[in-house]
Structures are given as C-alpha cells and as structure tokens.
Amino acid sequence: MNSLIIANNAPNYFNFFTPLSERLSDYGKVTFALDSNFSLDYNSVKDNYYVFSEFCEQQEKTELNENVLKLVEKIQNEYGTWFLYPDFDRDHYYQMFSSKVNLDTYKLFKYLVAFFVELFEKEDIHYVYYENASNALALVAREVARFYNAQFIGLSISRLPGRVSIVDKWESESEKYSAILEKIEPDTMTNDEKSYIKNYLANIEHIQPDYMKNNSLNQVSILSKYFNLHKFKIILFKVKYSLSKNDWDFQVGNPIKVALKSFLRNVKRRINLLSLNKYYEEFNANLDEAFYLYPLHYHPEASTSLLAREYESEYEIIRNIAFSLPYGTKLYVKDHMSAAGYLDVAFYNKLQQLPNVRIISPNAPTKVMINHSIGIVTLTSTVGYEALLLNKPVITLGSVFYEFHKNCLKCNALSDIPSLLKTLQQEFVLPINYNQNFVLAYYRGTHNITLNYNNDDKVSQNSSVDQLIKTLGY
Q: What Å distances lie between residue 302 and 306, 308, 334, 383, 421, CA to CA?
C-alpha cells in the first residue's frame, strides 16, 4: 500500500503529517509531493520526494507527451481550469506569481498534470493524503489520483468538537451526510451518540468550533504578531529562499516579498480598524426591527475561492440582497472577527450607502443575532450551520456541508434572491427530532480524531495519527 502525502508551506502542517508518514511507512512506501524547495525544507522532508518547481525547470527543456496532454484535455473539459482559481485568488492579495507564471498560466496547469502523472507512473500510489483539496497542487493531485484509481483522503476539522471529516471531494461533502441521514432508522442511536448530541445541541449557543480556537487571524496587534523570536527565525529562513530562483514556486513566490506584502496588509488592517467604528453599529436586541443576517467572509480562503467561486464579490451579493428586501425588512451585515479591517474603508462606505443595510460590529454576539433574525443569507459560513440548529432558515450561495438540511435553501443565481428572501419569511416547521438526526448524520459521517497542526507535542500528535490509522482500518 503506497501512500502519497502532499505538502506545501501551510503553517505547522508537518506537526501532524510527519508522524503520519512514519506510521504509513509500516504499510508501504511513502512519497511526498511538494510545491517547492522552500516547502521541502520547511517540512524537513529528507527522502522519497518530488518537487513541482524542480520538475517545471526540467520540463522547460522537453515536450509534454501525448498521454499527458490527453489527460489535460480531459480535466479541462470537465472542470475548466478552475482548479487554479484558489491560487489566483491568493495571488491577488499577496502577488506570489512570478512573471513567468503570469505570462503563461495555462502552462502551470499542464505542468501540474504532468508532474502528478509522472509521479503516479513511477510510484504506484494507492492513497493520497492532504487536508481538503483547496489549492491547485492538491486539486490536480486529486484528479490525477482518480484517473489512476487511487483514493484521495482529505482531512479537515469538522464543526463538531473533537471530530474530523474525511472526504475525497470537499465540494460535494453534503452528499455524504445526506445519504447517511436518509438511512437513519428510529431508535438506533447508541448511548454514546445520545450523550454527545444531547450535550452538543443543549450548548450550541456557547460552543466554538475547534478550527476557531487559537485562530491567529483574530490577532490584530502588529507587535505581538510579528516581533517575536519565532517570527525572526522564519524571516531568516525566508531570506535564504528569496535569493534563489523561484520562477515556478507559484504557492510561495518570493518569500520575503510575500511576507512584506502580508505585513503591510496587516498594518493597513490595523490602521483601517481605527476608522471603522463610524461604520459599525452595535447590535440592539431590543430594537423592534425585522432583519436578515449576512455574515461577511474572510478572504482569501478556500471556503470562498473554491466552494463559492462564482460569488467572490461580496459587495455585489449584498447589493443584490439590499435591493431585493421584502417590505419592512433590513439587512444586517456582520463583519468577520478574522477579516475586519482587511477590506478598504471604501468597501464599508459603499455598504453604508446601500438602502436598509446596517453594518454590525464583528464583536456582536452572532448567535443572539441569529435568534432575532428572520433568517441567514451566506456563501458557506459556519453561521449558516449554527442558524439551522437554532431553527432559523438559511439561504446559501456556495457549496457547503450542511446544505442538505431541510431548512437550507440553495441559491443558484443572484436573480433567485428576491423569491428566496420572501420564502424565508414563511413559517418553517421541522419534523420531530429532525435536528437531532441531522447532527447524528454529521456525527456518523465524521470521526473521533484530534487534529491540531499548531500542537507541537509529539506524543499528542502520535495519538492523533493512531486515531486516523485505526479509523482507516489499517
């Protein structure tokens, strides 16, 4: 059983995937696929690896073979080149692409396919491990794996505490849970399931998803975020690779230039936050006002650039909602705790000029707002999931794991918004125990695995690896 682990420069990714590679080596050969030499060094991978940027440098001197080009054509005819879009979105914010990539991006797509075709041909891969496929490197790997009948194992922290989702195609994750829900028979819950779900639903208004814990994006202090020993070591590491050739390091770019761009973006955020108070309103639960809630998203992030790629411009979405509001209602736009200030002040100024729109502070109590709202309109936000469990209807525009819920309405085009907003005003009555069964389906479709890349305790990470290996039945 040969395994492929995909790795890039995701922070602390190696804390989990390094011990995973050690355990998988007990069952067969383990190979790493990395985007760049920067990521190779960052993840401390020593052997059995393929580096995409090195492959590109070699490929520049040769022609792609006919079989690779046929697979490129097959993938493009099925998906277009949308697999590149999450990286394009990140490049918009951080300017990672070299001039070579910018001049011939389609070559990047072809090289990615050729890279994984060569790897699969040489290594006879059976399983591919990564997080949810959320960038071009992983998305192309997943598709080539399908061509070679290999299984893609995408790991992600679920919204249920202490549980992990394992899916091969993140974009259609809801289908997995929907199928489980349809097969649930009455009175089949185990005592452990009853205890977990009862406690979860009873405390849903106070539970924070695991992925939000220790979230560095909420940190706005420049001094504490950048001026520390760990950051200094990282900067020295990036300087080393900024001096080397990096034409095809499309996910890393020039590390120092990207780091500077990120630093300046955070400085600008800190300055913007000083100006945003005049746009923010505090939520007033006693205000007798009918409203819909729209939570802003963090950008760039795969939950928008992959799962809601057609709706990247949130201003356009909010504008459409604002001009489609039923009589006597308003739209409350709540800023995101991790994203507040990143957008230009001009964005908030434009929102403020829209009719019947209130911009709500990111510090406002989200679940209290949910309870007082008519319903939620969102791309893929966790707020939509929480609203459903609080018995509020939800409109989603993107693809999201909870869209199989009876009270979740899928918006397939912006022109659908007026009718969907009116539908949300109707009374939504769920069958008895529906939410309990909904959570049960989600519970049964996830696994009791602790996943925290920021945890550098080897004993704890080995325990997590053991949980995964047991779950996969090795």
A: 5, 8, 20, 17, 26
pLDDT at 226: 58
Q: How many residues does the chain have?
A: 474
Rounded-to-integer distance, Cα 151 and Cα 178, Å: 21
What CA–CA distance (Å, rounded) separates 85 from 407?
30
Where does residue 450 rank: exposed (0-12), middle (13-18), buried (19+ CB within 10 A)?
A: middle
Backbone angles phi, psi at 450, to 5 degrees: -90, 120
- Side-chain-side CA neighbours of 148 within 13 Å: the count stands at 26
Average pLDDT over residues 3-17: 95
According to DSSP, the β-strands at 49-51 and 30-34 are parallel
Task: Please tell me the distance from the alpha carbon of residue 259 to that of residue 264, in angstroms, as a whole number.
Answer: 9
Give the model's pLDDT for residue 298.
94
Position of tokens 């409109």? 395
Mean pLDDT value across residues 354-369: 96
pLDDT in tens, 194-215: 999 999 999 998 888 877 765 5
Token pair recorded at residue 236: 């020295």
| Cβ neighbours of residue 40 closer than 8 Å, sequence gap 6 or more | 32, 34, 49, 51
Task: Return the pLDDT at 203.
Answer: 94
Residue 448 is given by DSSP the state: -
Yes or no: say if 129 and 20 are a contact pair by the CB < 8 Å rule. Answer: yes
In the chain, count H helices and then E strands: 21, 13
Residue 187 φ/ψ, nearest 5 degrees: 60, 35
Contact 112, 137 (CB under 8 A): yes
pLDDT, tens digit (0-9, with 9 covering 90-100), for 451-472: 999 999 999 999 999 999 999 9
pLDDT at res. 61:
82
pLDDT tens across 83-106, in order? 999 999 999 999 999 988 988 899
CA 145 to chain CA centroid, nearest Å: 21
Cβ 145 vs Cβ 125: under 8 Å: yes
**Read out DSSP for 163-190?**
-EEEES-GGGHHHHHHHHHHTPPTT---
Determine contact, residues 392/376, Cβ cutoff 8 Å: yes
Rounded Cα distance, 253 and 262, in Å: 12
How far is Cα of residue 299 from the mean position of the Cα atoms in its chain? 10
What mean pLDDT is predicted for residues 148-154? 97
Rounded to an integer, what distance in angstroms lies between the CA atom of residue 213 and that of residue 200? 17
* pLDDT surpassing 70 at residue 147: yes
Across 403-411, average pLDDT: 97
* Residue 408: alpha-carbon gap to chain centroid: 20
Residue 83 CA to residue 319 CA, distance in Å, equals: 28
